[in-house]
Design brief:
220 residues; mainly alpha; 7 helices; 0% strand
């Protein structure tokens, strides 16, 4: 039991760091390409949802994904490029919290039986997590930045926000079945602790080091 808890903490650090790395490096690259406005939907529907589902299916621990989002948001705050980094950090935290609410009764891929069910849950999760995170961002960012929140500003852009969720929904419907298929053949407990912990820490360090190094290079 104690070893399972330690493995979960190491995995939270690992997947949170991977999530933050993709948001900073991959997200910034996508933001600079032609897909621009759909970057957030791609990051949520594929990368964020995929990593959260992998960790939930393999470890089955509620709360772990919220911990991942805290780590990822912290990394995003340290990378002030690729759009509004404060908005992104708030969105990441919101996505982790919304995931915990939606997936509170799902522990492993066995709880999602069949391709149709996994795809349906993926569509609902992708859309809800993206839209929810986007709306929370629109509300909290002005408050945190002392700019002030006005409901009319949110209502004006609400149709666009709801429409952009379609991309995240489609990607979610593809991501969940793929993750369920992969994780069903993956047994984390079979990995020896002498490899598991050093590998988790090393990969996490590389993610943070890459982001910090890239930030320093762009600043200088």
């Amino acid at each position: 039991m104690k070893d399972d808890y330690k493995r979960m903490l190491a995995a939270t650090l690992l997947f949170g760091s991977l999530w933050g790395f993709t948001e900073c490096i991959v997200g910034s690259w996508l933001y600079s390409t032609g897909i621009g406005i759909h970057t957030g939907a791609v990051m949520t529907g594929f990368f964020a949802l995929g990593l959260m589902c992998i960790s939930r299916f393999r470890y089955g621990k509620p709360g772990m994904q919220l911990g991942m989002s805290i780590i990822a948001a912290s990394m995003r705050l340290s990378y002030p490029f690729g759009g509004c980094f404060l908005c992104s950090a708030i969105a990441i935290l919101s996505e982790g919290l919304i995931f915990e609410v939606i997936w509170r009764n799902v522990s492993t891929e066995r709880d999602i039986k069949g391709l149709m069910m996994s795809s349906s849950i993926g569509v609902v999760s992708g859309y809800t997590i993206y839209i929810g995170g986007y709306i929370v961002t629109q509300v909290l960012t002005p408050v945190v930045s002392s700019a002030g929140f006005y409901v009319e500003n949110l209502l004006v852009f609400l149709p666009q926000i709801l429409a952009r969720g379609l991309t995240a929904a489609i990607l979610g419907g593809l991501t969940i079945p793929l993750v369920a298929l992969i994780t069903s053949h993956l047994n984390i407990k079979m990995i020896d602790g002498r490899l598991y912990y050093p590998a988790s820490i090393c990969i996490s360090f590389l993610c943070w080091f890459s982001v910090v190094l890239t930030t320093l290079m762009l600043i200088t």
